[in-house]
Amino acid sequence: MFLEDWSMHLRYISAVLAAAPLLTACDPSGDEASSTYFSAEQMATAASLRDAALERNETWELLEELVSVAPKRLAGSPGDKEARDWAVEKLESLGFDRVWVQEFQLRGWARVSASATVLSHDNIELDITSLGKSVSTPDGEVTAQVIHIPTLADLEAAAESDVEGKIVFISNRMERKKDGSGYSPANVARSRGHEVVAQKGGVALLIRSIGTDNHDAPHTGAMSFGESGMSQPELDLAYEEAVSAPYGEKTVAAGAISNIDSDAFEALFESGEEITVALEIRNNDLGEITSYNIIGEITGSERPDEVVITGGHIDAWDTGVGAMDDGMGVAITMNAVSMIGELAQRPARTLRYVAFGAEELGLLGARAYAEEYADVDHVFGIESDFGIGKVWRLSPAVAADAIPVLGEIATLLEPMGIGWDPDARGFPGPDLRPLVTGAGLAGASLNGDGTFYFDLHHTAEDTLDKIKAPDLAYNTAAYAALLYLVAEYDGRF
Question: What is the per-residue pLDDT across 50-83, written as a single tens digit (0 to 9) for each?
Fold first, then answer.
């Protein structure tokens, strides 16, 4: 627990009782009084939000409750509805001015089972999980020779005659990076490998898990179906065409092997002997299903039509409980906005919180939101959906003339040890991508520490015990201070 002893409990009670007077009658003295873009009172209020959040435990409580009520939250599952109901109840109980649910349709998918047996080497069983949206192996099971291809680029360059009738194993490794930059170069194998295998006449795809760990839990994650720039109906059609096509025309069954088993599996190929695997992947195509974005607002006091958007994605892969990805992001931003809503004076702009649905199946809730609310004046956005530890850096995604504004906000985060890099390229977040690309949404990144994030990402190891309550409070403090000042700022970003 965050409050480990009675003395800390007393500190917590004191902070809660003091929060209202602290946030309504702030002392503008001290470092917070010096400002170019904000008044002394605004800076002091932001500082008090920061300090109060560091002493509060609500973010942990929200996360603990979410993963208890709805541990399995893949879009279209019973847990998806349970998470929706939980989020609505929480937003209403936290005093949000408006709370509503946006429904949207998508093509649903459900995991059933996966197994891979190396028949050529004493029937070795590999730890494997199917990739998201994978079709099933035809006739229950496929048995074939496996060829080892290091990267997707190597697969694209391979002759069809080398791939035809084979199971392809792509072994590219993800590099560990604090900022998570090792993910995208490795992830192309998961995203596009199945289509290339199908085009060249292969019968299935196996990949090394896209992760930085060395444990026996394989990493899932969604495959793409030519999704770049597609609308939601186009996405659904592409998936429907892929899974309904004669087997091998547009896609093949695909699974990820745990990294520790991938090491052993890769070593088998060094002998030069032929490797044969019996692969069984079973999944269900659910057809058209409904999922949900859950939306809550704190209405702006002066410019309510100008919206600052934040949130996380409430869905999660069915392998773990989604405590890290992205239950903590849902809880951090929900509590940050809730704290701002407790102020006697609401900020000038409206704060809109969104718990996005169906992110894991292709940002589908994000796409639905951007379509329906294209006419909303979103002036700034930031999502929490990366990192397992403390935020370590603020990086901008705003116009050049607004960078100094974020730099001034950064002075309030500096005492927490959060750095400011005006030259780093920030990004508001995956679920805000459709607003960035379609409407030019400005924003920022509060970069979480991703050093160990991809040890757990999309695995059965994504559980509550991996997260530290003080880190949640720390990150909530950063989001609360930033969001308040962004909502108060009288210029554009």
Answer: 999 999 999 999 999 999 999 999 999 999 999 9
326 domain-assigned: yes
For position 222, which CATH number holds?
A: 3.50.30.30
Enclosing domain of residue 244: 109-286
- Cβ–Cβ under 8 Å, residues 453 and 388: yes
CA distance 398 to 440: 10
Q: What is the pLDDT of residues 107-138, one digit of tens each?
A: 999 999 999 999 999 999 999 999 999 999 99
pTM (2 decimals)? 0.92
Strands (E), 77-179: 98-118, 124-126, 128-130, 142-149, 167-170
Q: In terms of domains, do 131 and 65 share one?
A: no
Side chain identity, residue 157? A
Cite the DSSP H helix spans in 210-363: 232-244, 259-268, 328-341
Tell me the two tokens of residue 477: 């403090």
CATH number, domain with residue 407 = 3.40.630.10
Q: Are the C-beta atoms of 266 and 148 separated by less than 8 Å?
A: yes
Produce one character per residue of 285-307: b if its CB has 16 or more CB atoms within 10 Å, e if not. Answer: eeeebbbbbbbbbbebeeeeebb
